[in-house]
């Protein structure tokens, strides 16, 4: 397998976050664009505008719902191709995301494989908000308070959650099926 380079030379903004999911590369930038690159990384096949910086990216398994955030808000948006018929009957494909909902929080954001649990830091950055999806909307279910300084990285794999931040502490959490909450190990 050979290497290669996907060119961003015609993109005016600095890429802030990369995510590889479903065989595609997604890139979020400081100008608020989210790009999906072809499997061979030679062309940008989708570009959606948020008009706000993209500090973090998480995608559901179907790769049609994206979770982005920065320092004060998490945005849950639909990125499927839809025609905008507000200005003509035939419509054009819209280049803006369809925002499903937003809630207070900050980057980074992670979701589980079933897309029913989302974890992100609170706006202060030190507490972790565990959100559960009910009727397609996330509601806070639990707050984990184990960091003394801002959390800047999260990993969720299966029933394990790991967080780390400026306090040089790695915190491990395990999802309990009974009670549906994280237990910090």
Tell me what the structure shows.
The protein is mainly beta and 185 residues long. The chain has no helices and 18 strands. The chain has strands spanning 15-21, 24-29, 33-37, 44-49, 56-59, 65-69, 73-78, 83-84, 92-93, 98-104, 110-111, 117-121, 128-134, 137-144, 151-157, 160-165, 170-176, 181-184. The strands form 5 sheets. The protein has a 4-stranded antiparallel beta sheet with strand order 1-2-3-4, with no helix packed on it. Strands 5-6-7-10 form a 4-stranded antiparallel beta sheet, with no helix packed on it. Strand 17 and strand 18 (181-184) form a beta hairpin. The relative contact order is 0.11.
Shape: globular
Q: How do the strands line up in the largest sheet?
A: 1-2-3-4
Question: How many angstroms separate the termini?
Answer: 40 Å
Q: Largest beta sheet, briefly?
A: 4 strands, antiparallel
Specify Rg, calculated over alpha carbons. 17 Å
Mean pLDDT: 86
Strand content: over 45%
Strands, count: 18
Extract low-pLDDT stretches: none
- Structural class designation: mainly beta
SSE pattern: EEEEEEEEEEEEEEEEEE
Helix content: under 10%
Number of helices: 0
Helices and strands in order, then pairings?
Elements lengths: L14 E7 L2 E6 L3 E5 L6 E6 L6 E4 L5 E5 L3 E6 L4 E2 L7 E2 L4 E7 L5 E2 L5 E5 L6 E7 L2 E8 L6 E7 L2 E6 L4 E7 L4 E4 L1
Antiparallel strand pairs: 1-2, 2-3, 3-4, 5-6, 6-7, 7-10, 8-9, 11-12, 12-13, 13-14, 15-16, 16-17, 17-18
């Amino acid at each position: 397998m050979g290497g290669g380079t996907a060119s961003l030379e015609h993109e005016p903004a600095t890429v802030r976050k990369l995510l590889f999911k479903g065989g595609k590369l997604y890139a979020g930038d400081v100008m608020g664009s989210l790009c999906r690159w072809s499997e061979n990384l030679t062309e940008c096949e989708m570009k959606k505008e948020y008009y706000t910086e993209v500090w973090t990216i998480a995608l559901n398994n179907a790769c049609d719902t994206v979770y982005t955030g920065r320092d004060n808000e998490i945005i849950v948006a639909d990125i499927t191709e839809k025609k905008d018929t507000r200005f003509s009957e035939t419509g054009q494909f819209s280049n803006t995301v369809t925002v499903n909902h937003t809630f207070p929080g900050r980057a980074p954001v992670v979701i589980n494989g079933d897309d029913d649990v989302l974890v992100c830091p609170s706006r202060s950055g030190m507490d972790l908000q565990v959100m559960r999806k009910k009727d397609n909307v996330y509601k806070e279910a639990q707050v984990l308070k184990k960091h003394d300084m801002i959390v800047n990285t999260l990993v969720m794999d299966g029933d394990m959650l790991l967080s780390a931040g400026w306090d040089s502490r790695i915190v491990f959490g395990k999802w309990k099926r009974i009670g549906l909450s994280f237990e910090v190990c």
